[in-house]
């Protein structure tokens, strides 16, 4: 067609990647019709466009359209959107890409067309082309195709920082903080060089091992924004990731407060003492509400506001300021090295300190407030300073044995200071040396009880900060390359600085001056600053800027960490902090971080804040080491880090070191930190969004489960280890609108047995074809609903769905029961609900599937538990009354065990257990009761024992009539089944509610067969006298005979058939059938008498026993909450199921809730411990 595009029609083409337009044409092949379309540039249409661009197709005809629309383009876009998933699937296959850089699209015939439609020849990889079905494409495209959120996130600008600016320098700046300048010298003076080196080794070795673990984890995949949190959450799961991530966020936030409070301390004590509110006298008022603490709070708040403004300007601005601060810090460190050399070369240049014996006097004892510190040696004698004598006498009492002298506090490397500082000195609080109390206003003393673990706790924050570069991963150009190199290099650099500075301080400064924590002997000067060369101001300014820079790094990284946690949407309350500005700055996170940091500043003491920071950092370090250890030991296929210099033993040692430091310094803080981590973990597990990140905890659980299963032998467990492993089978119609109360109550009942601590598997049978996508979708929906129902019922287990075709239910059942489970962990107890309807016309009716399940479970050696009246079983209502167990046959005590487990549930907890033993008329009831009471006592189960006698040797007329009714009904149903199988074809499209034909052996047949009552049990037929004495006595033993054996107990012939009640009976058993004369009933008394006489005496005996047992049960348990008794042995074939069903109906008639239980003999309850 000719084209006359207007000015508003812009030539474009379609881009298959995102459904938008691009500036090239494409060739599209439909994966279903295999039709090739050459699409020339399609014009963007507007209401002004009258004609479309020309489109050529092998099977297209011109299409008329309304003005202003482009149906060809719209249809093409729709087709391309449908093909997107197919294209993404083919991108994963080997060889040429489906849409490659060459701009060619492979053709069905082995060649390809380029973008202009020109043939490009054959494709040597045509053999590997596959049809891309819609079944797999959505799954794959979800992992390969970026979604809208990912595309939107990718639009945010990254800083693209390298190793130096992104990791190395920020990490060094963060690590080299205030603690190094104001606490390292004091640690050397107290612990000595030897134990200080040990303390530094523990701290630095811990962080070094963690750096190795970080490098391995960070190079095992893409590390996105969030750094340490991202690594922990993706490897330990959202619960641990969120818990440790929040603790690590708090660590960085509170560390901001620690650095700023330390900076204010330097500012007020050493740089500008005149700024102190309350004067210099306030410097020693360091209580919780002391004046110095208030100064720290006030000036710390001002500094946090300044840093807030700087960080709000953006990460680029922060990183631009970082080198300036870092240069000053490095200059300060170099000044210390130079100062040691200068003091060695020129010993007289060192500042003097005044000593009285072994007491180091405070400067205010010797000098007036206005005197310079350089006058210390001139004033440290009684001649030039006569007032000093009185002050010493008032403080210590004059001792002529003690000399007053001036000592060089900075003797340099050439002195014996190194030897003197080798040993440790750990004074208690208010002591100047161990065991000697100090005069607090006159000499230098300890303000805390010093120990090795105390200095370890105080100094450990100085080595933290190794995750600074990792936290900036979202702004790194190549995180996998930058993080390992920058982090390890920064850690080694700072470790060298710490060890070398400790050696310099110990070799160049006298031990007495090193123990002067606050510089009181130097008139409030910083001890380390006195060593610096060329001027103390180099170190004072550098140390202050180090604190300011470290706080800046913490305040910059903490909001990004919080934003990463919030972005994962694991904790709903954090969602507002996932928002970032146009410059990718987490401004809301910055605000809340500043508020929390301000709360830390209000503590008003750096040492107190440092002790809190320790544990937050150590928790994070420990879990990173756990990740590396776990992956290394498991050897998961996806564990392929590019960083090769790691080993599981190093990670394990790092983990041990982290927890050792935590519990050795402050065990109470460690417990609080772990408890806080556990609380966050449980909160996320309870309220958090469910995320599947393929984390290592799941992999660890899988490996542990595999190991445990391999240790369990695949044979019957010892009776002490036996527990009910439930398999719940149901095949009920599913609907989105309706809920089957029978299924839900069965799930709730299984949950009430959870005290057994066994495996639970719920399997739903759905008629359908596994090859049809619609049936698979239905099965998936059913499984999701089952899992939700199990979660609501707090039933822990597994849900499965099984699709079966027509007439496959029996084979599917046997295959399922034989194959379900793994190793020694497989279900051993089949839990079923008694059917409420019976339909013998369809193979997958409720009745037929029930009997198939029961027979399959019995044939495969499973214990059987059948709940009758399941609609009346409670789910949450607490019941009071009796749980009656009828001890008919010795089945290993499974009935008693089930009752005991039920009583552990809050639903049945207030019910009492009664064991009712059924004895024959010739047995000793007293002896049976005594033996049973002793047995129950040995089982450690509280229960009341009752013995009842079942003795009625005469066969009642009721037994004959009900047996006759049972046989008539069985013949009729077989006739109907045979006719149906010849004349009807059964539809296989889904589950169809059956046309039910309810049945009941208790219903009255018609007027010709009179309905008997329980009161006529003494009445007998005329021919009953022909039954001999032995047959009569065997009636009460006939409840557990097989149908084929007259010597065995006879009630074991059936299956739980679908039953329902007449209107005056229990509502859960609806629709009973009465067979009248038109349905093959008995037409006259003569015919009836003949049939009665011809009945099988074995069946009559069984029916008589069932009637008598029902009478006994109703006599004792008509008001009981639940009745349990042994399920007779099921028949081996389905031909005898109907009779078996009638016997069970008769036994359980008029009972509200019944539980049939049959064990296999292997689940014997032992009396052993």
TrEMBL record:
Q: Where in the cell is it found?
A: Membrane
Q: Does the keyword Transmembrane helix apply?
A: yes
Q: Where are the transmembrane segments?
A: 161-186, 198-219, 240-261, 267-284, 296-315, 321-341, 450-468, 488-510, 587-606, 612-633, 645-663
The SLC12A transporter C-terminal domain sits at 840-952, 1092-1167
Is Transmembrane one of the keywords UniProt gives this record? yes
Pfam families from the entry?
A: AA_permease (PF00324), SLC12 (PF03522)
Q: Which residues form the Amino acid permease/ SLC12A domain?
A: 167-341, 442-727
* Location, primary (coarse class): membrane
Which keywords has UniProt assigned to this entry? Membrane, Transmembrane, Transmembrane helix
Biological-process GO terms, alphabetical: cell volume homeostasis; chemical synaptic transmission; chloride ion homeostasis; potassium ion homeostasis; potassium ion import across plasma membrane
Topology relative to the lipid bilayer, per the entry, is:
Multi-pass membrane protein
An example Gene Ontology cellular component term from the record?
plasma membrane
Q: Report biased composition (Basic and acidic residues) as residue ranges.
A: 1030-1052
Q: Under the GO molecular function aspect, what terms does this record hold? A: potassium:chloride symporter activity
InterPro entries, A to Z: AA-permease/SLC12A_dom (IPR004841), SLC12_C (IPR018491), SLC12A_fam (IPR004842)
Protein name in UniProt: Amino acid permease domain-containing protein
Tell me the organism: Ditylenchus destructor
């Amino acid at each position: 067609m000719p084209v006359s595009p207007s000015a508003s029609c812009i030539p474009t083409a379609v881009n298959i990647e995102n459904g938008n337009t691009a500036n090239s044409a494409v060739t599209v092949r439909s994966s279903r019709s295999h039709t090739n379309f050459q699409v020339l540039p399609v014009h963007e249409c507007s209401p002004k466009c009258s004609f479309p661009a020309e489109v050529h197709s092998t099977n297209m005809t011109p299409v008329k359209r309304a003005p202003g629309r482009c149906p060809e383009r719209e249809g093409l876009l729709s087709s391309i959107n449908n093909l997107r998933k197919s294209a993404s699937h083919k991108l994963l296959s080997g060889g040429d890409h489906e849409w490659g850089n060459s701009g060619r699209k492979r053709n069905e015939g082995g060649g390809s067309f380029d973008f202009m439609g020109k043939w490009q020849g054959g494709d040597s990889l045509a053999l590997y082309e596959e049809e891309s079905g819609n079944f797999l494409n959505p799954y794959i495209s979800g992992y390969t195709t970026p979604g809208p959120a990912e595309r939107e996130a990718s639009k945010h600008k990254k800083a693209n920082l390298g190793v130096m600016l992104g990791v190395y320098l920020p990490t060094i700046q963060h690590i080299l903080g205030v603690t190094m300048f104001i606490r390292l010298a004091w640690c050397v003076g107290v612990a000595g060089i030897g134990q200080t080196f040990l303390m530094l080794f523990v701290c630095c070795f811990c962080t070094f091992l963690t750096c190795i673990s970080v490098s391995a984890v960070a190079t095992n995949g893409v590390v996105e924004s969030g750094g340490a949190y991202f690594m922990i959450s993706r490897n330990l799961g959202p619960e641990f990731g969120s818990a440790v991530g929040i603790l690590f966020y708090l660590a960085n936030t509170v560390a901001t407060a620690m650095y700023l409070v330390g900076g204010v301390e330097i500012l007020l004590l050493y740089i500008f003492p005149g700024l102190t509110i309350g004067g210099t006298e306030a410097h020693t008022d360091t209580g919780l509400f002391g004046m110095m603490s208030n100064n720290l709070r006030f000036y710390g708040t001002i500094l946090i506001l300044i840093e807030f403004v700087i960080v709000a300007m953006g990460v680029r601005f922060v990183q631009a300021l970082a080198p300036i601060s870092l240069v000053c810090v490095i200059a300060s460190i170099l000044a210390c090295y130079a100062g040691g050399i200068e003091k060695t070369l020129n010993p007289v240049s060192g500042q003097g300190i005044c000593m009285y014996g072994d007491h180091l006097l405070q400067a205010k004892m010797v000098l007036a407030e206005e005197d310079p510190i350089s006058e210390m040696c001139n004033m440290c004698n009684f001649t030039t300073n006569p007032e000093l004598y009185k002050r010493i006498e008032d403080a210590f009492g004059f001792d002529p044995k003690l000399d007053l002298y001036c000592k060089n506090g900075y003797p340099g490397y050439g002195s014996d200071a190194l030897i003197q500082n080798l040993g440790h000195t750990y004074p208690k609080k208010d002591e100047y040396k161990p065991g000697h109390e100090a005069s607090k206003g006159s000499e230098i003393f300890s303000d805390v009880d010093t120990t090795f673990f105390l200095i370890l706790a105080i100094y450990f924050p100085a080595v933290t900060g190794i995750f600074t570069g990792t936290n900036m991963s979202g702004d790194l150009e190549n995180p996998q390359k930058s993080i390992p190199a920058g982090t390890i290099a920064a850690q080694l650099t700072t470790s060298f600085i710490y060890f070398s500075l400790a050696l310099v301080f110990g070799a160049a400064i006298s031990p007495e001056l090193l123990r002067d924590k606050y510089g009181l002997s130097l008139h409030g000067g910083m001890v380390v600053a006195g060593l610096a060369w060329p001027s103390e101001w180099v170190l004072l300014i550098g140390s202050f800027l180090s604190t300011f820079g470290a706080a800046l790094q913490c305040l910059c990284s903490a909001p990004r960490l919080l934003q990463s946690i919030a972005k994962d949407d694991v904790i709903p309350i954090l969602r507002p902090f996932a928002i970032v500005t146009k410059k990718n700055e987490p401004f809301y996170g910055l605000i809340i971080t500043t508020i929390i940091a301000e709360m830390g500043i209000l503590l008003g003491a750096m040492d107190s804040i440092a002790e809190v920071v320790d544990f937050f950092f150590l928790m994070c370090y420990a879990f990173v080491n756990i990740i590396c250890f776990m992956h290394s030991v498991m050897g998961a296929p996806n564990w392929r880090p590019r960083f090769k210099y790691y080993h599981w033993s190093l990670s394990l040692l790092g983990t041990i070191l982290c927890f050792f430091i935590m519990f050795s310094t402050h065990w109470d803080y460690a417990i609080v930190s772990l408890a806080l981590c556990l609380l966050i973990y449980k909160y996320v597990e309870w309220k958090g969004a469910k995320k599947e990140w393929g984390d290592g905890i799941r992999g660890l659980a899988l490996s542990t489960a595999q190991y445990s299963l391999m240790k369990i032998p695949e044979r019957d467990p010892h009776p002490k280890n036996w527990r009910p492993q439930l398999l719940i089978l149901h095949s009920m119609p599913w609907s989105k609108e309706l809920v089957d109360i029978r299924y839900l109550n069965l799930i709730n009942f299984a949950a009430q047995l959870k005290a057994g601590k066994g495996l639970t598997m719920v399997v739903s049978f759905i008629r359908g074809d596994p090859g049809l996508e619609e049936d698979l979708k239905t099965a998936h929906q059913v499984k999701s609903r089952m899992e939700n129902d199990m979660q609501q019922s707090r039933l822990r287990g597994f849900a499965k769905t099984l699709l079966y075709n027509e007439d496959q239910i029996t084979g599917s059942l046997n295959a399922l029961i034989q194959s379900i489970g793994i190793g020694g962990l497989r279900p051993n107890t089949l839990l079923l609900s008694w059917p409420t309807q019976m339909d013998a016309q369809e193979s997958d009716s409720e009745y037929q599937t029930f009997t198939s399940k029961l027979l399959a479970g019995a044939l495969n050696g499973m214990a059987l538990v059948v709940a009758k009246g399941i609609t009346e079983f409670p789910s949450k209502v607490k019941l009071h009354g009796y749980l009656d167990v009828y001890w008919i046959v010795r089945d290993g005590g499974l009935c008693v065990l089930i009752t005991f487990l039920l009583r552990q549930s809050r639903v049945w907890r207030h019910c009492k257990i009664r064991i009712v033993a059924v004895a024959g008329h010739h047995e000793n009831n007293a002896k049976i009761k005594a033996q049973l009471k002793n047995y129950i006592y040995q089982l450690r189960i509280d229960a009341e024992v009752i013995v009842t006698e079942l003795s009625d040797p005469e066969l009642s007329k009721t037994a004959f009539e009900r047996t006759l009714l049972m046989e008539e009904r069985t013949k009729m149903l077989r006739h109907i089944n045979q006719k149906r199988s010849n004349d009807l074809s059964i539809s296989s499209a889904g589950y169809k509610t059956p046309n039910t034909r309810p049945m009941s052996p208790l219903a009255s047949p018609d007027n010709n067969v009179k309905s008997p009552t329980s009161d006529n049990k003494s009445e007998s037929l005329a021919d009953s006298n022909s039954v001999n004495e032995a047959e009569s006595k065997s009636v009460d033993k006939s409840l557990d005979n097989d149908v084929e054996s007259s010597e065995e107990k006879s009630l074991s012939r059936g299956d739980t058939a679908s039953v329902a009640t007449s209107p005056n009976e229990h509502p859960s058993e609806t629709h009973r059938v009465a067979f009248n004369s038109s349905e093959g009933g008995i037409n006259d008394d003569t015919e009836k008498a003949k049939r009665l006489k011809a009945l099988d005496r074995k069946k009559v005996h069984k029916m008589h026993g069932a009637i008598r047992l029902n009478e006994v049960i109703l006599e004792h348990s008509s008001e009981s909450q639940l009745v349990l008794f042994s399920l007779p042995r099921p028949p081996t074939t389905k031909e005898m199921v109907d009779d078996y069903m009638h016997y069970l109906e008769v036994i359980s008639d008029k009972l509200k809730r019944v539980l049939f239980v049959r064990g296999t003999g292997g689940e014997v309850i032992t009396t052993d411990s």
